[in-house]
Structures are given as structure tokens and as C-alpha cells.
């Protein structure tokens, strides 16, 4: 059984930084991408960043230049370094792992940006 465990969320002031981690365990083969989405009440889920196994990355326009996604393939772990955080970054952040046949999701970690 595949399990994704996220960590690193919390409360931070505007302009601050957080680093999210998501570790995948279980039988996972053929990972094509790993990444992060976020969800706020009343809004649709929003793509934040994707790191493809082929080496390319994709970012939402709203986080470009502030967030950095990275992976440790040996550990099946994906990270999201978030700098210069803004009020509007407040959300529940979900990681995912996509293979050729399945997509797995974490339980979510809350990020709150508040003064």
C-alpha cells in the first residue's frame, strides 16, 4: 500500500519561509512526476509546482521566483521550499505522486501566513 506523509506546514509571518516535505512509501514503480497542489475554502484546487522525472519543473505563475520544488528520488521524497510567503499562500497543501497507472495523494498540510 502506498502512503504519502507530508510535513513542514505551520504558521508563518508574511515574508517568511517554510519547507514542505512529502515522503512516499510502499510499492511505487515508474514515477513520472511528483508535485504539490493547494486548496483554500471556496476555491478550486490549484496546481503549485510539479517536478517531472525527466527533470523539468512547472510552477504556477503566482509562486514563480518564490517557491522551489525539488526531489530526492532515492527516498521518493518531494520538497517545496517556500520563500517570501504572502497572505494569499495560506492553504492546505497536498502532495501527489503520479505513475503511469496511478496517482497517489497525501493527507495535506496546512500553511497559514498571518501577522
Describe this structure in words.
The relative contact order is 0.33. By secondary structure, the protein is an all-beta fold. It is 0% helix and 56% strand. It is built from no helices and eleven strands. The model has no long low-confidence stretch (mean pLDDT 96). β9 and β10 form a beta hairpin. Strands 2, 4, 5, 6, 9, 10 and 11 form a seven-stranded mixed β-sheet that branches. The chain has a four-stranded antiparallel β-sheet with strand order 1-3-8-7, with no helix packed on it.
* Sequence of secondary-structure elements: EEEEEEEEEEE
What composes the largest sheet? 7 strands, mixed
Indicate the mean pLDDT: 96
Helical fraction: under 10%
Radius of gyration: 14 Å
Gross morphology = globular
Strand content: over 45%
Structural class by SSE content:
mainly beta
Enumerate how many helices there are, as a single number: 0
C-alpha termini separation? 40 Å
Q: Which spans have pLDDT < 50 for at least 5 consecutive residues? A: none
Total strand segments: 11
Question: Could you outline the blueprint of secondary structure elements for this entry?
Answer:
Blueprint: E1 3-7, E2 10-12, E3 18-25, E4 31-39, E5 46-52, E6 57-59, E7 67-72, E8 77-82, E9 91-99, E10 103-105, E11 109-113
Parallel strand pairs: 2-11
Antiparallel strand pairs: 1-3, 3-8, 4-5, 4-9, 5-6, 7-8, 9-10, 9-11
Amino acid at each position: 500500500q502506498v502512503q504519502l506523509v507530508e510535513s513542514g506546514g505551520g504558521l508563518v509571518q508574511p515574508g517568511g519561509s517554510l519547507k514542505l516535505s512529502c515522503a512516499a512509501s510502499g510499492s511505487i514503480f515508474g514515477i513520472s512526476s511528483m508535485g504539490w497542489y493547494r486548496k483554500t475554502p471556496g476555491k478550486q484546487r490549484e496546481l503549485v509546482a510539479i517536478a517531472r522525472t525527466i527533470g523539468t519543473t512547472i510552477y504556477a505563475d503566482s509562486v514563480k521566483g518564490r517557491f522551489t520544488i525539488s526531489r530526492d528520488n532515492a527516498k521518493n521524497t518531494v520538497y517545496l521550499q517556500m520563500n517570501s510567503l504572502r497572505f494569499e499562500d495560506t492553504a492546505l497543501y497536498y502532495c501527489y505522486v503520479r505513475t503511469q497507472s496511478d496517482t497517489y495523494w497525501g493527507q495535506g498540510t496546512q500553511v497559514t501566513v498571518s501577522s
